[in-house]
Design brief:
Blueprint lengths: L2 H16 L1 H4 L1 H10 L14 E5 L4 H12 L3 E6 L2 H15 L4 E5 L5 H14 L5 E4 L17 H22 L5 E5 L11 H4 L8 H22 L6 E5 L7 H6 L1 H7 L6 H13 L9 E4 L2 E2 L12 H15 L14
Helix pairs in contact: 1-3, 4-5, 4-12, 6-7, 7-9, 7-13, 9-13
The structure holds NADP nicotinamide-adenine-dinucleotide phosphate.
C-alpha cells in the first residue's frame, strides 16, 4: 500500500467513526474522491438479467434505472401495478432500454412472492442479480395475511423466500449476486429472536425496523455460508441517509433536520449498483458494505451475533417462509 492509499484508508476509518459524517453525503463525497472508484459505465450489463424489488421509488427506482442504463434486462417488482408501470415507463424513456418489465407482488403476502418467483423462473433461463431492496418503516403494529408482523415479514421473511425461490436460477448463472439493502439503523440493535417480531404492546416501529435490518445482515452471512456451493455471492449493504420518499414519510423530522446533508438517491444507490456489476465483490461473500468498502457489522460489543443465534434465526425464517434446507451439494428449494 502506498502513502496515498494509507492516507485514504485512515480518512475513511476516521469518517466511519463519526457515524454522522459517514452516513451523510459528506461520507460519499469524500470517499468517492479519495479512492479511485471504478466508473460503472465500464461494466456493461448487456445480456444480463436483474430483478429489483421496491423499484417504484427512491433507491430501488434509481438502482433499476442505472442497471437499465448499463444495458441489463431489468425486472421491476412493485406492489401496485399503476406505480410499477409508471416506473417502467420512466426507466425505459430515460435510459432508452426497452427491456424493462414489471411484476406485481406485495411482500406482505408470501403467496404473491411465490407467484412472482414462479414467473421469473418460467420466463428466464438466467438471473444475474437479485436486489432485495423493498421495505418501509411503519409506525403501527400490523399483521399480514400470513399472520406475521409487517416489518418482520416484508424485510426478513419475504426477501428470504424470494431468494430461496430464485436460488437455483441464480446458481445456474455464472457470477450472479444477491444484494440486500439493509440500514445503518441496524447498528443500534442486536439480533434477538424473541424480539424480532414485535407484538402490538409497546410496538416501536423504529426498533422493529432496526431489528429486521440486523436480521437481514445476519442472514446475508448465513446465505453465503450455507449456499457457498451454489457459486452465488451474497452482499448486504447500507446506503447511508438518503433523501427518498421513504425517509421523508417515515422520519419527517430527521429528514428536515438533515436537509442538504442527506445523500441523493444516486449516491445512496451507488454501492447497490457496484455490488451488482463490479468484479471486486465476486471475490468476497457474505460481507456488509457502505460506499464500496467492507464494514463491521457491529459497532457496539453487545450487538454482536453468536453462531447459535444466527442458526436459530435461519431456522425461524425457513419455517416462516416454508423453505427447506439449502445445505448440501445442490441448492434445495421447496415450492
Ligand atoms: N432512504 C434511506 O435513508 C435509507 C437508509 C437505510 C436503508 N434504506 C432502505 O432502503 C430501501 C429502499 O428505501 P427507500 O428509502 O428508497 O424508500 P421508498 O422510496 O419508500 O421505496 C421503498 C420501496 O419499497 C416498496 N415497498 C414497501 N413495502 C412493500 C411491500 N410490502 N411489498 C412490496 N414493495 C414494498 C415501495 O413500494 P410502493 O411504491 O408501492 O410504496 C417502494 O418501491 C428500504 O429497504 C429501506 O429500509 C433506506
Amino acid at each position: 500500500m502506498n502513502a496515498r492509499s494509507l492516507l485514504a484508508q485512515a480518512v475513511d476509518t476516521a469518517l466511519e467513526g463519526t457515524v454522522v459524517l459517514s452516513f451523510s453525503r459528506v461520507g460519499y463525497d469524500v470517499r468517492s474522491r479519495l479512492f479511485a472508484w471504478l466508473d460503472l459505465t465500464e461494466r456493461p450489463m448487456t445480456g444480463k438479467v436483474a430483478v429489483v424489488t421496491g423499484a417504484t421509488s427512491g433507491l430501488g427506482l434509481t438502482a433499476a434505472t442505472r442497471l437499465a442504463a448499463l444495458g441489463a434486462s431489468v425486472r421491476l417488482l412493485g406492489r401496485d401495478i399503476g406505480r410499477t408501470e409508471r416506473a417502467r415507463e420512466e426507466i425505459a424513456t430515460r435510459t432508452g432500454n426497452p427491456d424493462v418489465e414489471i411484476g406485481v407482488a406485495d411482500l406482505a403476502s408470501l403467496d404473491d412472492v411465490r407467484r412472482y418467483a414462479d414467473q421469473i423462473r418460467r420466463y428466464h433461463s438466467r438471473l444475474d442479480v437479485l436486489v432485495n431492496n423493498a421495505g418501509a418503516l411503519v409506525r403501527e403494529h400490523q399483521l399480514t395475511g400470513d399472520g406475521m408482523e409487517l416489518t418482520a415479514q416484508t424485510h426478513v421473511v419475504a426477501p428470504f423466500l424470494l431468494t430461496a425461490q430464485l436460488l437455483t436460477l441464480l446458481a445456474q448463472t455464472p457470477g450472479s449476486r444477491v444484494v440486500t439493502v439493509s440500514s445503518g439503523g441496524m447498528y443500534t440493535e442486536r439480533l434477538g429472536l424473541p424480539h424480532l417480531e414485535m407484538g402490538p404492546d409497546g410496538f416501536d416501529g423504529v426498533k422493529a425496523y432496526a431489528r429486521a435490518k440486523r436480521a437481514q445482515v445476519v442472514l446475508n452471512r448465513q446465505w453465503a455460508q450455507r449456499a457457498a456451493h451454489s457459486g452465488v455471492t451474497f452482499h448486504a449493504m447500507h446506503p447511508g441517509w438518503v433523501d427518498t420518499p421513504g425517509i421523508q414519510e417515515a422520519l419527517p423530522g430527521f429528514s428536515r433536520a438533515m436537509g442538504p446533508l442527506l445523500r441523493t438517491p444516486e449516491q445512496g444507490a451507488d454501492t447497490m449498483v457496484w455490488l451488482a456489476t463490479a468484479r471486486e465483490p465476486l471475490t468476497s461473500n457474505g460481507q456488509f458494505w457502505l460506499d464500496r468498502h467492507r464494514r463491521w457489522t457491529s459497532k457496539l460489543p453487545w450487538t454482536r451475533t453468536s453462531a447459535p443465534d444466527a442458526h436459530q434465526l435461519w431456522q425461524w425464517v425457513s419455517e416462516r417462509a416454508g423453505v427447506g434446507a439449502v445445505d448440501g451439494p445442490e441448492p434445495v428449494v421447496t415450492p
